[in-house]
Amino acid sequence: MKQTFLLVALCLSGALCSAQTPYPLNEYNELTDLRPPVDEGLWSKVPIIPPLRWGSTDIRYTKHDVPAIPHLPIWKATAWKGERVNAQAVLWTRNFHKDVRLGVSELRNGSSIIPTEAIQPAFVRYVMTDELNKDGKSGCSQRPDKAEWDSSLVADVLDPAARLCIDACTTQPIWLTISIPSDARPGVYKGTLTVSADDMTAQQLPFEINVIDRRLPAAKDWAFHLDLWQNPYAVARYYQVPLWSQAHFDAMRPVMKLLADAGQKVITASIMHKPWNGQTEDAFDSMIAKIKKIDGTWSYDYTVFDKWVEFMMNEIGIDRQINCYTMIPWALRFDYFDQATGRILFIEAQPGEPAYNEYWGAFLQDFATHLRTKRWFEKTTIAMDERGLDAMQEAIKVIRKADPDYKISLAGNYHSEIEHELHDLCLAYTHTFPAEVKAARQKAGKMSTVYTCCAEARPNTFTFSPPYEATWIGWHVMAGNYDGYLRWAYNSWTADPLRDSRFRSWAAGDCYLIYPEARSSIRMERLIEGIQDAEKIRLLREEFTRKKANGKLQKLNRIVSEFSSEGMLRPDPAARLKNARAALNRF
Prior knowledge:
- The chain is α/β, with parallel strands linked by helices.
- It has helices at 2-13, 232-239, 246-260, 303-316, 354-374, 389-402, 435-443, 468-479, 522-546, 550-561, 573-584, and strands spanning 52-54, 75-81, 84-93, 97-104, 107-109, 112-114, 119-129, 152-159, 164-166, 170-179, 187-197, 200-215, 225-228, 266-270, 289-292, 298-301, 321-325, 333-338, 343-348, 380-385, 407-412, 424-428, 447-452, 484-487, 520-521.
- Helix content is 26%, strand content 27%.
- α3 (246-260) packs across α4, α5 crosses α6 and α8 runs parallel beside α9.
């Protein structure tokens, strides 16, 4: 009885491994879970030597509940050459352990080796999340009072820390990401995950990966058009460095490299002050200074814009497209520096009004000249987000008058009246392109993609979303015959993103997919799985078409067709996704 009391007390109090630190956070302590364990007494029955077992990447294991995980002697997976695969193990302990460490062996297939450098182990850390709207239909709502929303800790952050202290009565998931070399010899590769600490008996879990004789291209060569919007301003705030300084670019480098490794194709550039009216913790500013001179003419300073684009292209390797936001902001106020007064002023004008046309017409003409000088014109679009037909038509008139060869992009609803004007058109989830329009766009080399935001209850990438939903998105892209996927926020971090993913607007996690210090997430890794699956589908379709293997092509297309928006509503979507993913490796 006394032992049990002491154990419960230790579980409730926790044990701090390191002191809390201000931003930026390296070692840190998670917030206190607001939900009590389902059965606190179960911890007294956990063996002294912490159990370690293979779990499922479909599950976010709760921090203070004893997990019910069946014993799996060995984890097995099948992979293509060049593919990135994930596994999750789970350790749970009744006692505090200091400096727990993760180790992986090289993977061996006879004399062939996948080196340890290709295997990234990470502790799965817990972040505060909330919930969908009370009706369960979406995550779009204002949430100024966090107490009004059911909140809890959820497993999501992938922390590649060298060591971690684990509190008593804690479940600690462990994530493995294995990058199969593109030149790996086919066959079964075997390796071992080791979890150790000075005060804990080292434990091992074996795993093996069957590498088959199919190859994924490098991420930069994927056809999938991935467009996750970057927020450089969030990085400057979090790391407390001056905007556009060398320290700022140094801080952004690992964050944006994660994005390039996911196959990102688009650079997000802001060409006006607060294109989204400051909806995020860190508002976007204009990367291009607009100066109205004393004589009434205009000049423009592209220094920041050029530095940002050159950094993303030359150092990060994202160089397919530059989307410039926006001519139709959420608040129709347009910034400029007025030489006559020495002040930043704003023009307030609606699309179609003379002041609007003059402001944007002069800029777009000069911008076109600059882009051509930099050889970026063909890569650049003037981008709008969820704007109505009337406003779009007026903006398009100004763009075409300034330079008829400009490319234009829109994320929003389908409008037949302007579809032909849009190089990059991204439709909201559940919306579709008419088949003949999609075919014509594809023939013309235009992008036709899909996006999710707070409006979709499922599938989504909130911090509380079931992990499989992120993978589902890639399959949905292929089922809908889209070219790729857009999400509005890659790294628009909340005030304390490592510990609290909740925000004053929208469901938790809506604002970002990865964490500071280049920490990935369960959501991000599962999204990449879906993108890789989409590439596999594309390659298999091309092969079956070339070889006239109509039976295989029809079978593949039947499997993919299950991932329409209606498919998410059918029973057990997670199991159907798991079966479909396995089928790709059997063709």
